[in-house]
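Newbie here. two chains, one complex. Structure please?
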Amino acid sequence: MSRTAAAIDRATAAGRAAFIGYLPAGYPDKEQSIAAAVALAEHGADVIEIGIPYSDPVMDGPVIQQATTEVLARGFRIAEVFEIVQAVVEATDAAVLVMTYYNIIDRMGPDEFARRLAAAGGAGAITPDLIPDEAAEWIAAAEAHDLDRVFLSAPTSSPERVAMIAEASRGFVYGVSLMGVTGTRDAVSDAAVQVVEASKAAGAARVCVGLGVSSRSHVEEISRYADGVIVGTVLVAALRDGGPEAVGRTAAQLTGR
Amino acid sequence: MTAQSYREAPGPYFGDFGGRWIPESLVEALDELAETFAKAKADPDFVAEYQRLSRDYTGRPSLLTEATRFAAEAGSARIFLKREDLNHTGSHKINNALGQALIAQRLGKTRLIAETGAGQHGVATATAAALLGMECVVYMGAEDTRRQALNVARMNLLGAEVVPVEHGSQTLSDAINEALRDWVASVDTTHYVLGTVAGPHPFPEMVRWFHQVIGDEAREQILDAVGRLPEAVVACVGGGSNAIGLFHGFLDDPGVGLYGYEAGGEGLESGRHAAAITLRRSGMLHGARSFLMQDDDGQTIESHSISAGLDYPSVGPEHAHLAQAGRVTYEPVTDAEAMRAFEALCRTEGIIPAIESAHALAGAVRLSAQWGEAASDRVIVVSLSGRGDKDVGTAAKWFDLLPPDEDSQAPSTGVQA
């Protein structure tokens, strides 16, 4: 059973969209990244994404790039991710996913990566540069270890592709709200609602929307049509400027709770 | 398979390599690109237009020049140089930049973006954009913009905007990441002119197609010159575009040995090199699975080479396949070996090669030495992929030709009578 889906369904049952927050593993250091994720859960996150710092993050804007570059510069190793996931799982009720570029999984070997993630209590992985066309090995490994796999659906994805993405995903489909990379935006793109509708029409049970979501009003707007709202950059900026407590405050503002 | 053709490998996969390891947001644009390219290359009007520009603008066919004095000094086989250095803008890069700019027009796109390391591909793309009246933005590592300030000025003169990339190592790899980020947000209006045979499908296949002319010409020219095929065809390999273009003409001639020379930098044992094929670690970077310099965690390792054009931690997926299949032999050539060949070609032939191409020259000398006595009857075709004007500063420093810093007057840059 998908733990991510269960977390989203609990939010739905409570009459709201799930709140999904992203933080980079090990930023600014291991202890504070764990504390920040715990604060996030205590202030309303149903699902937490732990991003794995990577040397070539093509989907990330300047704020997240700067954070993950700093983490890598201090000698971060992948083993740390599993320790962080385990600590967050033990301290919170949130479903904990990792978000990772695929070369990290490929180097370790998909099965070994899935095994270690499952052993740490992780719920699954979001893979921003892996399309279902290339994902056979990862899907098999995730299946073998009962992990969720979240694929992205874009405003430009054809109906055939949306169907393939919905079919390949477990947990939820990540609806990309706009054509671009992570970072704050002034408004939610009109494309977001269409991405959600297309994915639902293709059979996706749960669709959550991310990219550019940066204010309470964005969260409210997306909550009207999506099963969950994904926020990253504003949380990372809060962590950078004010530490784990600021992450909690920002999460509370975004969720209105 | 007995009569396996390497020439017709279409992508998206080359053996275990290639594919598309990219965000979903780019899939539609890549599909559209693949379809438009497939139609274009089957369209006589497109092919005629590309050939006309190649002839009247680039200056094709490029010459095949025998390097008699260079070969004699090296005691080597007969060496023929495929003179891509004589193309407009000074390297093979213009073949691809012009071709992709024409494709972009067919796609109805008005803006070109490109990455560049030393600036050769950036200059070629800026040139194509100027010729066809398109907007052009070139991403270049901030470190490279400082090292190659004159090439930045050159691109500016051609009407392009050059954006320094301040992230990561501030070199070619980061410039590609930044160009991909731009493209994800701008695919409506923008075509990404990727400069080498790397990247997601259809780039490796398409970029190869625009460079195949190098090998097609060279094969005909060497048959004219010596009446038979050469024993060896050699090229430098960074991303591998000049090499794939030249090799392609000979891939299905089993008697022709094919040799690719990677940047060995300060030597493999130093860790400071760009010999991704030699290391044989498979992974995905910039959209393709290929060989990749990476640590045990899968983080890309920064490459090093005296030659900015070879300073890339991966290589085109078709090269990875040709290496694994054993059709092409790849070896590293160090900075020092390349600079010896650079100096020798300048002095014996009156040709200043790009330092990239000097790696191929050094490879030819090495190959000849391995042949021993038999070398004198043999023929090698070497890709002289670019001219070395851009490298004079680097060479002057390497050979200590500059006045010492402390008492140097500003060196005269004026024209001497």
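Moderator note: The mean pLDDT of chain A is 96. Chain A has eleven helices and nine strands. Thread marked as resolved.
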